[in-house]
Design a protein that fits this description.
Length: 520
């Protein structure tokens, strides 16, 4: 609790200092969150330039997510050892440096190593940004501070695909990383100017080295298994079997060790509380579905529908409209209502959006693509904060930092895993549908025979006719595959509502301010 106590003597900021401090922290958060989505629409450009497949290109996203997930639980320990302001500054500076390295990457291994570093140093930035922001405002204005912070984190994922698409189409993909450099420099200078004399107490805190090592082994093995599984034909490959066994054994040892360690890196005993368990699992699986689809949708639009990266980014843009407009309203309503109602409505809206997408055809128009994305913004406004309020409801103050770190860890892990699973599942469903459609291409199918005759009448020879038919089948199979995943996502969101209602949250406002560090 030394960290929390150290913040008491620092009075709230006022005037220009408060404005500059808020902008500095918000810029750092914007840069961080932007990088979780800016690469999504640029995967085809990155993959093509580096000479790798699109599914290998998605490692650019998952490597960041996994490194980020592993570093989040270390935030508390690093804060005790370094101080929150110095740690926040170090995160910004190293983030800028790793962004520069990403842009200079000559090949995929160097880019992935740079993204791992970027994800690792980004871990403490989000929780510490909220800590600094909340300490800068009077307690009565904490909801306003969190509302402004939440708007920043909602604008960044919207700006990411648009900015990433435009840069990929008009400049070159390295600039999706170089754009962080001026933003990071301004954020670092302003942060040091305002917060350098407001650091927390530093103490020599013990670190659970064994727990951390086991965490890195099982998370890393699991993610590599998910990423390489499709290429190596899953469990017919010795490599995949070994990775799965390593992940499983390391996870088992990790759970036993963390439950018995004196200073665990992750406090697993929190899962004995129904509010924490129900809220964390619902939030994490919901986020995994959302993030997996956030990667899948622009990839499908570019590889099968013929959209440019910029056009794919613009299709994703409307999600921010209602999210930004309604988030302050959610903050006002939440203390006076049961957060389960808001979370349930959010999940139903997500389910509706994915169901609408499951009805797409290969001739889908832009307005049909954008309508579910626009509606999804309403769900986004009620997604994070109510579920965080449920997750941390009833926890004593001294357990909130550990709960925030663990909730963040599970959520970020699910985001990375969701990306890998959606990529693999789409390929599997596409292959299955392609085989089923090709079965119809025989002399006994009058529709196929008529199509062949029409192509022949148009001047195509037999080889050209079959080539065109195969292209059409491939596009249709990819369409059916992506529709399957949208439909399954809708069903899972409906099923997750049951998890929300096994919780018994106390008043929503109780922990909302103190617990915000789990929100994003």
């Amino acid at each position: 609790m030394a960290q929390a106590q150290a913040q008491v003597p620092h009075p709230p900021l006022e005037g220009a200092q408060l404005v500059i401090g808020t902008i500095a922290v918000s810029l750092a958060v914007f840069m961080n969150v932007l990088d979780t989505s800016i690469a999504n629409v640029s995967i085809p450009s990155i993959s093509g330039d580096l000479g790798v497949s699109s599914d290998q290109g998605t490692w650019v996203i998952t490597s960041f997510a996994v490194a980020n997930a592993i570093s989040v639980p270390l935030t508390g320990w690093l804060t005790d050892r370094i101080g929150q302001v110095r740690l926040f500054m170090a995160s910004i500076v190293l983030f800028v440096l790793s962004s520069w390295m990403c842009g200079l990457s000559p090949n995929l291994p160097f880019l992935l190593a740079s993204r791992v570093l970027q994800g690792a140093v980004a871990g403490p930035m989000i929780p510490l940004s909220q800590t600094l922001l909340l300490a800068s405002y009077p307690r009565a204005k904490a909801p306003m501070a969190l509302s402004m912070w939440a708007m920043t984190t909602l604008i960044a994922p919207v700006a990411g695909p648009i900015l990433g698409g435009w840069i990929s189409d008009n400049i070159s993909w390295p600039w999706i990383f170089y754009v962080n450099i001026p933003v990071g420099v301004v954020a670092a200078v302003a942060t040091w100017a305002i917060f350098r004399n407001r650091d927390s107490l530093v103490r020599k805190a013990p670190i659970d080295g064994v727990g951390l090592g086991l965490l890195i082994v099982w998370v890393g093995s699991l993610q590599v298994m998910l990423d390489k599984g499709k290429d190596l034909d899953w469990f017919s490959s010795t490599t995949i079997v070994v990775l799965a066994l390593v992940a499983l054994i390391a996870l088992a040892f990790f759970i036993v060790w963390e439950l018995t360690a004196e200073h665990p890196v992750v406090d697993l005993s929190l899962f004995s509380r129904r509010n924490f368990t129900g809220g964390t699992i619902a939030l994490s699986i919901g986020y995994g579905l959302y993030f997996g689809n956030l990667v899948l949708l622009p990839l499908w639009l570019q590889t099968d529908i013929g959209y440019t990266a910029t056009e794919a980014g613009l299709v994703m843009a409307p999600v921010g409209l209602f999210a930004i407009l309604l988030s302050p309203l959610t903050g006002k309503v939440l203390p006076r209502t049961d957060p389960r109602y808001i979370a349930t409505l959010s999940f139903l809206i997500f389910a509706l959006c994915f169901w609408m997408r499951s009805r797409y055809t290969t001739g889908v128009d832009t307005s049909s693509l954008m309508l579910p994305t626009l509606i999804q913004g309403i769900g986004m406004a009620g997604f994070f904060i109510p579920l965080v309020s449920i997750t941390l409801s009833g926890l004593p103050g001294h357990r909130i930092p550990a709960a925030s770190g663990l909730s963040n860890f599970v959520r970020i892990m699910c985001g990375g895993i969701g990306t890998s699973i959606f990529q693999t599942a789409w390929d599997h469903r596409t292959i299955m549908h392609h085989a089923q459609l090709t079965e119809q291409a025989n002399a006994y199918n009058p529709a196929f025979g008529q199509s062949v005759q029409q192509m022949g009448a148009a001047g195509l020879n037999q080889q050209q006719t079959y080539g065109l038919f195969n292209t059409m089948v491939t596009q249709q199979a990819a369409q059916l595959g992506v529709n399957d995943l949208f439909f399954i996502s809708a069903g899972i969101f409906v099923a997750l509502i049951a998890l929300i209602w096994i919780t018994r949250p106390e008043r929503a406002g109780g922990n909302a301010g103190a617990a915000a560090s789990a929100a994003h």
